[in-house]
Amino acid sequence: MPRACGMTCLKMVLDFHGKETPSILEMCQTGEKDGGYGKHGWFHDYFLKVAKEHDLEAERGEKIGEIMGLQKIHDELKAGYPIIVSTTKHILGQQKFHMVVLTGYEEDEDSSIVGFYFNEPESLYREEGKDVFVDIESFKYGWRRMAIFISPSS
């Protein structure tokens, strides 16, 4: 399905949290039927709704500032929670809008973030798309200042 990267990311995160999910195709079909998909792609609010239906906490960051946003991403990853981020495909050498799941980070000796690891939903081979590294400058260039934070309910 065109533009299934967002739903694939949501499935990855739900699976990470141990939630039972249908196939990506079924999730996309249900999402379209439920009004979760529009002219420009998946609605982030729909992802929040689905996460909450699976008894998870979910919030979205839209137009979040670079410094505060990177700190929130760092804190969530440090706590062990993957994050769905909206990027351009610049991190993959393209300029289209895209979503990936951040899975980790790397710091230098001064505890400054030097880059992130992400899972690429469009990879045809699981191992090739798992924990791909992007340096911090490339990430900042491609990141659209949008993220979906999903964590266990308190």
Task: Report on this structure.
There is one protein chain. It contains six helices and eight strands; from the N terminus they run ααββαβαβββαβαβ. The protein has 154 residues and is of the alpha+beta class. It has one domain: Cysteine proteinases (Cathepsin B, Chain A, Alpha-Beta Complex). It has a six-stranded antiparallel β-sheet with strand order 3-8-4-5-6-7, sandwiched between helices. The N and C termini lie far apart (35 Å).
Summarize the topology.
Elements: H1 5-16, H2 24-33, E1 37-38, E2 41-42, H3 44-53, E3 56-62, H4 66-78, E4 83-88, E5 97-107, E6 113-119, H5 126-129, E7 132-135, H6 136-142, E8 143-152
Antiparallel strand pairs: 1-2, 3-8, 4-5, 4-8, 5-6, 6-7
How much of the polypeptide forms β-strand, as a percent range? 25-35%
Q: Biggest sheet: strands, sense, closure?
A: 6 strands, antiparallel
Structure annotation, total helices = 6
Average pLDDT: 91
Integer count of domains: 1
CATH superfamily: Cysteine proteinases
Proportion of helical residues: 25-40%
Query: What would you call the structural class?
Result: alpha+beta
Q: From the coordinates shown, what is the CATH architecture?
A: Alpha-Beta Complex
CATH fold-type name: Cathepsin B, Chain A
